[in-house]
Amino acid sequence: MLKWFVDLKISRKLIVGFLIVAFLAAVIGGVGIWNMAQMKQQATDLYELYVLGVQYAEDAARYFERLRYNLTMYAVQDNATGLADYSSRISNQVASIEESLDKYEQLIQFDDEWERYNAVVEYWEKYKPLAEKLTSNTLTSPTAITQRLSYIRTYSNVSDALRDAFVTMIEADAAGARAKTEENNASAQGAILIELVIMLAAILVAIWLGAYISGIIGKPIMGAVEVAKMLAQGDMSAKDKLKEETLQRRDEIGQLRAAFGELIDATLTQVQATERLAKGDLTKDVEIRSDKDILGKSLQAVIDSLNDIATSIIATANQVASGASAISHSSQILSDGATRQASAIEELTASIEEIAAQTENNAKNAQEANRLAAETKESAIRGNEQMNTMLKAMDAINASSANISKVIKVIEDIAFQTNILALN
Predict the structure, then answer these.
(1) Can you tell me the distance from the alpha carbon of 358 to that of 312, in angstroms, rounded to the nearest whole number?
(2) Cβ contacts of residue 319 below 8 Å, gap of 6+?
(3) What is the pLDDT of residue 263?
(4) Do 346 and 383 touch, CB atoms closer than 8 A?
(5) Residue 35 contacts by C-beta under 8 Å, 6 or more apart in sequence?
(6) Contact 199, 30 (CB under 8 A)
(7) What angle separates helix 142-154 from helix 52-75, to the nearest 10 degrees?
(8) Beta carbons of 230 and 241 less than 8 angstroms apart
(9) What is the distance between the alpha carbons of residues 225 and 248, in angstroms, rounded to a whole number?
(10) What is d(CA 181, CA 47) in angstroms, rounded to the nearest whole number?
């Protein structure tokens, strides 16, 4: 299923791994940012819908209590200065109450809030004429004071109802604020839990991804290291360590394993060439894989050199054989000459015997005999010289025969060495 990932280059594997980790970090960050945005919005809602509502309601209720007090103080004033002072305060407080109610109205979103607000407004609209009616009486006489106090008593029920409406609204908003706070706390805890789950899942995925990438990169590299060590020790069985599934990969690991396979095959080819060379087989050339194949070129150079040496030895042996044949022929010629000289000597001996016989038989021819004797003597002298010459020739023949024996011995030694080289 992940073969496409396995076939990616190592650099792309690492980039994809980092991108996945970055994506997980982005998811974690995005979820965190979304949760923080939600919490911020919830805090804003809590503040705007409830805290501000409670604040505005409390402000209106506080101003209302001050208004009640100032109305009472206005009613009992017996001088114009006091009436004017409290009249100003009453006007400010009425305006503050209405301002607070207007601000509260802008925050209302739910029907029950409208009901509580409308109740307050309803009682306020009934109570507000008291201020106008009371402040319109600017007399300082006891009768006027009594009359103003009677106005206040007339509106006491409305005042109590308005105060209760304010309390109800404030308590409801406070309860809503508490509920919203609890809801925000629950949401925050849920967001923290979700963030922790996502972080744990991201950590597990990152650990698995790191282990997976380490496995598909580290283990094959360690296998390649083991193969390299076996090759360094001359163990050609290292090819068995190359797994088929690794060789089918398209990344650097697969290319490395394929290169190791080619290296082992080429080395085995050169080993076979070396074994043939060790057995003396110089008939096959070594396959040169490239211009940088130093070992192949060196083996081929050795084979060429041995072929040159063998050729030189064969040529030298042929030359020695030819010289030995020439020497043998010369020896035969010398032997034939010696045989002829021996025959001549025999004939000369026979002639001498014949001359001796004639000398005895031809006493009368003394002078002729002397002449013949002198000739015979001269022939004998020449025969003696020829004998000496023959003896010298025989000595030369013997010396030549000894030299021939030495040459033949050298030829036999060369032939023996040639046979040894051929066997090697």
Answers:
(1) 68
(2) none
(3) 73
(4) no
(5) 188, 191, 192, 194, 195
(6) no
(7) 150
(8) yes
(9) 19
(10) 10
- Tell me the per-residue pLDDT of 298-325, one tens digit each, with 9 for 90 and over: 777 877 777 777 677 677 657 756 765 6
Instruction: Give the residue from 424, 4, 238, 78 showing the smallest Cα distance to 12.
Output: 4
| E strand or H helix that includes residue 200 | helix 156-232
Please tell me the pTM assigned to this model. 0.47
| CA dist., res. 214 & res. 225, Å (int) | 16
Residue 363 gets which letter from DSSP? G
69-104 pLDDT, tens digit each: 999 999 999 999 999 999 999 999 999 999 999 999
CA distance 208 to 202: 10
- Would you say residue 201 has pLDDT above 90? yes
Distance (Å, whole) CA 389 – CA 395? 10
Q: 3-class DSSP state for residue 417?
A: helix
Q: Which two tokens stand for residue 178?
A: 């508490």
Backbone angles phi, psi at 289, to 5 degrees: -75, -30
- Spatial distance between the Cα atoms of 354 and 361, rounded to a whole number of angstroms: 10
Report d(CA 108, CA 112) in Å as an integer: 9
Query: Identity (one letter) of the amino acid at 267?
Result: T
Buried b (16+ CB within 10 A) or exposed e, 177-194: beebeeebeeebeebeee
Q: Chain-wide mean pLDDT for the chain?
A: 81
Read off the pLDDT band of 184 (50, 70, 90).
Answer: confident
Question: DSSP labels for 287-306?
Answer: PP-STT-HHHHHHHHHHHHH
How does DSSP classify residue 280? T
CA 257 to the chain's CA centroid: 14
